[in-house]
Specification:
heterodimer; A: mainly alpha; MetI-like fold; two-stranded antiparallel sheet; 13 helices; globular; B: alpha/beta; D-Maltodextrin-Binding Protein, domain 2; 2 domains; 10 strands; 22% strand
């Protein structure tokens, strides 16, 4: 005990080098976020100077070539598609992790986990390509045009499913074995053990997994660009085509100049604000949960 | 302690590599007599320019041709600001872009495409306008099956969109699209996968894909069949020049490249991309 106190209070030479190094790395990673924010603001400044922020949600439409900059439908599309994907992927991911931990034979569990990990490694453009050439025509047969909010949600679900499954898996693995033994000693069935002991104990891990997945869904660009149809509108049904904020940037950035380009950076700002809000909410609820 | 030493060593190695790599790159580009030619602009022209560049490099061992895409307007902007030596534009220069020099290296047409399963074989000008503005929403109204039409439009900024709107005298905000696409390939894949879709893409790539089993077909425009042949003889109404743009009267290596790109020596490359070579 005394030895460790000594070590913390008066740093040895190697420690002080390490401390300096760590400080530098920490500063660097924090600075990157700030720099990105500053960059976004400075790039969108030209248009913000003569177009008030309110016009980005009150203009008639998004036609930057004609000076109309309404990004609200795209905000809505991003929210809806991510929400849909999270709603679908969460039960699937949790079920997959529970199966892996408490129901599958060891050999199957190992292979199942590997398959899920593989799913996480597939590049998003491959999902997009598959969605465009296979899924979109299928959904188009139900209701044209096929590329739609629903197609986007399905593809996003597949992309974030491994994130949910793997993080929940890790959270379940972190539940102390003593809890399980206690539950077994009480004679609980496997399901009541999961429902009454494991899930509450792993709650915060599961929540952060879902949060990670949600952020990934919001940030996903290439796949959603290929399958969601990209029409700027509030969807009137699951089969309507939508454009997300990320798709808007990817679709138009290469060709944009002047105010149009700056307006795309405003889109980026909106996206960042959305993610920050989401993370903020997550922190808020986490603290709340910690006090309970 | 050992770990710390390893860490520091690792950092030193990374630092050393970092110091060395740029030096090597500098040496390569600073080789005596080495010249770099930067082309930016239209994504339609870029693949052709890259092929021409490759052949040009083979003939001139001291030149490196660097082709980057980003749209016609971007190409013209980059030439103006000096970021690029040559801009690529898949349209003629606009009035506010005077003062630049443009050289046509090929011509391309824009054709309406529908799914191969669609029984409609021709649409007149007014029908296309009505479809794109949402006045006609069912194929039945133009002699097809009783299915709702899926209108495919291009994203803002693409010169194909500008040309299309200009030809049909439309405002983009008046277009009621169901799907908005980025490049030609995405457009062809979208129409091929949806039996009720209609879109417009470069005739060059559409004809190529249609011959390679994509389920699309080109519709005639104003009674003229959409084919490379009709673009070549000037009969097709919706055609555009593919231009190389420079800031000043080309000289030196830029002049050599432009002359090469307009010569008979690259006709086969132009035709391989299903564009139409210039008259020599």
């Amino acid at each position: 005990m005394i030895w460790s106190w000594h070590n913390i209070l008066s740093l040895s030479r190697t420690d002080s080098i390490l401390a300096a190094l760590l400080r530098l790395c920490a500063l660097l990673s924090a600075a990157i976020v700030i720099l990105i924010l500053l960059f976004l603001i400075s790039e969108s400044w030209p248009v913000l100077q003569h177009v008030p922020l309110s016009r980005f949600i009150s203009d008639a439409s998004w036609h930057p070539a004609q000076g109309l900059y309404n990004i609200a439908p795209m905000l809505g599309a991003t929210l809806l598609s991510s929400l849909g994907a999270v709603l679908l992927a969460t039960p699937l991911g949790i079920a997959s992790a529970l199966f892996c931990h408490y129901y599958a034979p060891t050999a199957l569990a190992i292979w199942h986990r590997r398959t899920i990990a593989l799913l996480a490694g597939i590049p998003s453009v491959v999902y997009g390509f598959w969605g465009l050439t296979t899924l979109a025509p299928l959904i188009g047969r139900l209701h044209p045009p096929g590329v739609s909010l629903l197609t986007g949600i399905v593809v996003l679900t597949m992309m974030i499913l491994p994130t949910v499954a793997l993080t929940v898996d890790a959270a379940l693995a972190g539940v102390p074995a003593a809890y399980l033994r206690g539950a077994a000693a009480l004679g609980l069935t496997r399901w009541s053990m999961i429902n009454g002991v494991v899930l509450p104990a792993a709650r915060s891990g599961i929540a952060s997994g879902i949060m990670l997945a949600a952020v990934r869904a919001i940030g996903e660009t290439m796949a959603i660009l290929m399958v969601a149809g990209n029409v700027v509108q509030y969807p009137d049904s699951l089969f309507a085509s939508v454009r997300t904020l990320t798709a808007n940037i990817a679709l138009e950035m290469a060709y944009a100049m002047g105010d149009h380009r700056a307006a795309l950076f405003v889109t980026g700002l909106a996206l960042l604000a959305m993610v920050l809000l989401l993370v903020g909410f997550a922190e808020f609820f986490k603290q709340d949960a910690a006090h309970v | 302690m050992k770990k710390l030493v390893t860490l520091v060593l690792l950092l030193v190695i990374v630092g050393a590599t970092w110091l060395f790599i740029p030096k090597k790159a500098e040496q390569a580009s600073n080789k005596p007599g080495m010249e770099r030619l930067v082309l930016t602009g239209s994504s339609t022209v870029a693949p052709l320019a890259a092929e021409i560049g490759r052949r040009f490099e083979a003939l001139h061992s001291n030149v490196r041709v660097d082709v980057q895409t980003g749209g016609s307007s971007r190409g013209i902007n980059d030439v103006r600001s000096g970021l690029a030596d040559i801009g690529m534009a898949s349209r003629a220069l606009k009035e506010n872009e005077s003062g630049l020099f443009s050289f046509t290296i090929a011509t391309d047409g824009i054709g309406m495409i529908v799914n191969r399963a669609n029984p409609v074989t021709a649409l007149d000008r007014q029908q296309i306008i009505d479809i794109y503005t949402g006045k006609i929403t069912d194929w039945q109204a133009v002699g097809g099956n009783a299915d709702p039409i899926t209108v495919v439009n291009k994203a803002e900024g693409h010169s194909t969109l500008e040309l299309f709107l200009h030809h049909f005298d439309l405002q983009n905000s008046a277009v009621k699209a169901h799907v908005i696409i980025g490049d030609n390939q995405q457009g062809i894949k979208t129409v091929a996968g949806n039996p009720d879709a209609i879109g417009y893409v470069s005739i060059g790539s559409a004809e190529y894909e249609a011959q390679h089993d994509a389920a699309i077909k080109l519709l005639p425009l104003d009674g003229v069949a959409a084919s490379v042949e009709n673009v070549q003889n000037g009969a097709f109404p919706l055609a555009r020049p593919l231009n190389l743009v420079t800031r000043s009267e080309p000289a030196g290596i830029i002049k050599a490249f432009i002359e090469f790109a307009r010569s008979r020596q690259v006709d086969d490359l132009v035709m391989a991309q299903y564009f139409v070579p210039v008259a020599h």
